[in-house]
Write a structure and sequence with these properties.
Length: 73
């Protein structure tokens, strides 16, 4: 899927790979992380949250950061 660019102090953009259930997040620092086994519904919630003016960082901290296994790329 295409990158979703966000207005955030920490996160630059994110995208989702539906075949592998990987959420890829690029941070402002340039670091890229893959979050594994993320349900498509969570990705869609995230996308809608930021598109309606919600904080990308707050959603990440509450719903993704400590929930899913991840790897720095």
């Amino acid at each position: 899927m295409a990158w979703v660019v966000v207005d955030s102090t920490v996160i630059e953009k994110f995208r989702y790979q539906p075949k592998t259930s990987i959420l890829e997040i690029e941070f402002k620092s340039g670091a890229v992380y893959h979050y594994f086994d993320v349900p498509a519904a969570v990705y869609h919630e995230y996308r809608e949250h930021v598109k309606t003016g919600g904080s990308a960082g707050q959603f990440f901290n509450a719903r993704i950061k400590e929930v899913y296994r991840f790897e720095r790329m």
